[in-house]
Structure to design on (198 residues):
């Protein structure tokens, strides 16, 4: 793992981008990033991501900043800018991984919300496209993080969770962490679990 993986969401139009900005933060958290940096006018999205982290576990940090350009230019590590105009993710993912994950160098992943100024392209070590087609920045971030971590983020265990979602074929099952540990330990020991979802 890298020293730190940070996702920066550039640009936010209150009212119009609230859901998308929130989903950038939630995707960053769920798929292995350590922190998300949101524009300072995205307070509602920040609170939602913090609430999810409080309930479903961390660690994960949410930060609001108004100096996103200087933050990116001053980043001491590798900068990846996700854009449909970049190099294909499948062509550069190994290089990005070598420059960050393998070398324990902090990684900043920039995800645009509105028109991204050209200086972000210039500040990036890699401008990376996921399919080079128009689609959601949330989808691009999810694919990039999964490729970066090679699927290892899907096995992550969460600290200080108030609730845990237990995977099952049908239904929804949310339990407290102690019950989840007991069920996992029982499964490891070969104990049958006859419970069903509701």
């Amino acid at each position: 793992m890298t020293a730190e993986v940070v996702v920066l969401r550039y640009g936010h139009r209150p009212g119009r981008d609230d859901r998308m900005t929130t989903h950038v933060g939630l995707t960053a958290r769920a798929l292995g990033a350590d922190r998300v940096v949101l524009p300072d006018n995205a307070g509602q999205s920040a609170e939602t991501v913090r609430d999810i982290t409080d309930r479903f576990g961390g660690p994960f940090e949410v930060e609001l900043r108004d100096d996103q350009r200087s933050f990116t230019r001053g980043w001491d590590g590798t900068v990846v800018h996700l854009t449909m105009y970049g190099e294909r993710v499948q062509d550069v993912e190994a290089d990005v991984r070598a420059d960050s994950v393998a070398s324990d160098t902090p990684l900043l992943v920039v995800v645009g919300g509105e028109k991204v100024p050209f200086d972000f392209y210039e500040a990036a070590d890699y401008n990376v496209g996921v399919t080079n087609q128009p689609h959601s920045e949330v989808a691009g971030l999810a694919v990039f993080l999964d490729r970066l971590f090679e699927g290892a983020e899907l096995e992550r265990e969460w600290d200080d969770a108030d609730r845990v979602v237990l995977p099952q074929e049908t239904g929804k099952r949310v339990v407290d962490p102690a019950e989840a540990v007991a069920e996992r330990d029982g499964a490891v020991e070969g104990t049958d679990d006859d419970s069903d979802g509701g």
About this structure: The chain is about 40% helix and 20% strand.
